[in-house]
Design brief:
Length: 487
Amino acid sequence: MDLNAYQQRAENFITEIGREYYIVGAGLKDRLEIAAIYERYADLFTQAAVRDLLDRLNGKEVHYLAEFAVGGYLDNRVKALSEAITNAELAATVPWDGQDVPYQQVPVLLRNEPERARRQALGELYYNRMAQDNPLRAERWNTLHDEARRLGFIDYVDLCDRLRALNLRPLAEQMTRFLNETESVYEPRLAARLAGSGVPRDQAHINDIARLFRADEFDPLFPAGRMLDALRRTLTGMGIDMDAQPNLKLDLEMRPLKSPRAFCSPVRVPHEVYLVIKPQGGQDDYNSLFHEAGHAQHYTHIDHNLPFAFRYLGDTSVTESYAFLLEHLLHNRSWLQEILGVSPEDASAFVRFALFQKLWFLRRYAAKLLYELELHTGPVDGRAATYVSWLERAGRVQVPQERYLSDVDDAFYVAQYLRAWILEMQWRRHLEHNYGPAWYQHREAGELLISLWRIGQRDNADEMAGHLGAPGLDVAPLIEEALSAEP
Ligand SMILES: [Zn+2]
């Protein structure tokens, strides 16, 4: 195999796929057509290409390329099952209030349903419908497990861990520590939040948590009309003039088919990076705008001389850490007051809520990681009880067993989020130590970030933590944040 030719084709492939996702997400086209692109680039993901790359695993570039090839190869192997599951979900309905409600709409209804008994009834219908497609999901996971072994790995865990350098076992140890050490603050905060929303503690269910986090009382703090200005002012403080970045393509036009959720499409890194926005307002919308803006700033600042593998591939935890760094400005009292003009009392109330929500997600993802380490070592059938046991231990509310196969992302993406949350906290500690809580108003903070952004994803999250002088990823600052948060 000619490695240079392979990289060139891989870059063309990613550009075409990225452009298609951008065009459809931006509402410029009403149908996603990626099958034809995959067909045209089928040579990138053949068994021969995969084996060739796996045989010469040496150095980061080849490593990242091998991970890319294996990912595409595995996607291809389960393509029919993935489509069958997606289509079943698209076609499924749940009978509710005399209507057939689309299955995919139910999580939104659950979040917005104020009556607890109705939430439970609707949830039951939803999980029953979910269970009908679990045989397809089981077949898909078991196929992926078989393929991992066929490629010469011990199991699917080994494949993800080695190819993606996720350091899963040390991460599991750190997250076990997180679960143990935050237990004492988690339970009373959970109980208080549940009591506040009228949910009996001993009956608390994951449906109630979805409702709790809807938190529409905070919506007025985050008006749609001020989102973009808040982003612009934040970046300006860091010395970045968003409007003077020719490679950052802000898509603000209103189109009926445009995705309501902000997204970033790095079509050609770093020359053509789209940030697509349709402001709705509310905390979720602000979260996603700042998250995606973090990705967009990372991609637009990557050195164009870097090889393809370091501009597009590598450890996704790194780009996610920058996305979380901007997103978590919403947890910063001075930012809320100075940039959004929120009152000190409202800022405090919102930060308390947001940090509880973050604690919930960290505990949930810790449990998902520990569960997936078990799930992916053998056949997935009959693992529902394991799922429930991990998730209930961490979340301390009832969890439906029917979710045991759908509440799992491919290739341990759960680990990537956890690594990103840990790394982001290490960035933030460093920035706050040097520039104070309002670090986002310091040009030097921006310069430091730009110097990190330049290297793309050449270095993984553990190595990036090393650039700050830390021995590696360390969960301690996250534990401290959880313990020191106001209840
Ligand atoms: Zn992201």
